[in-house]
Design a protein that fits this description.
Elements: H1 2-28, H2 34-57, H3 67-78, H4 87-108, H5 119-149, H6 164-174, H7 184-210, H8 219-249, H9 259-262
Length: 263
Amino acid sequence: MAVTASLKLPEALSSVVRLTAEEKEIKKIPRWYFGGMACSTAACCTHPIDMMKVHLQTHTADGKLRIFQSMINLVKARGVRTLYVGLTASVTRESIYSGARFGIYEVLKPDPGTPARPFYMKVVTAAFAGAFGGFIGAPFDLINVRMLSDIKVPVERKRNYRHVVDGFLRICREEGPLQLYNGASMVVLRAICITVGQLSFYDQVKQTLLGLPYFEDTLPTHLLSSAVAACTATTLAMPVDVMKTRMQNAPPGKYKVSKADRR
C-alpha cells in the first residue's frame, strides 16, 4: 500500500508542475483590450510629435518646415501646454479605434497550440479588423486632426473645440452628423494599412524568428518583431495618412473620394 502511494506521488507532482506551466501559458495570452490601452498610453507620449506631423502634412507655404525647430518656436510662443492640444481626442480615438482592431484580430486568431495560419490569412484578418476599427474611430480621428490644425490656422478659421465631446457635438450641430465621416474612406484605408503592417507582420516576423535556432520567445524577439512591424506599418500608411489629414482639414466639397466624403 505504501509502495503504491510512493509510486503515485511523483506522478501527482508532475501533474501539478504541468498544470502550473499551463496556467503560466494562459496568463501570457494577450487580452483583447491590451492593444487599446497600450495605444492610448503611447498617444499621451507621442502627441506633440503627432501634432507636428499634422502641421507638416498640411504645410503649403513656400519654404521647408523643420519639425523640431517648429516645436521649439511653438513652445516659446504659446507654452508647453500647446503641444497637448487635442489630447482628449487622440486618446479617445486610440481607445475606440485601436481597441476594436486589436480586439477583433486577437479574437479571430487561432487558439494557442493550434497550427499557425498562412501569412495571407493573417493579412486578411488584420485588414478586416483595421477596416472596422477605422470606421468606428473616424469621427474622433476627424476631431483630433481639426484640433491639432487649429494651432496654425488664422483666427477667423479656428474651430476652437474645447475637448473631444465639444468637437463631436458642435460638428453634429453646425455641420450635420454625416460630416463626422468627412475623409472616412482615407481613415479606413489608413487603418487597414497600419493594422496589416502592425499585427500580421508582427506575428509573421515573430513566427519566422522563432523558427531559427538563435531566437526564443523572449523580450528581445518581441522587440525586434515590433520594430519590423512598426517600420512596415509606417511605410504602408504614410501616403494615405497625408491624404487623410488634408481631406479632414479641408472645407466640405474640396476633395471627393466617396459618397460619404461628398457630403
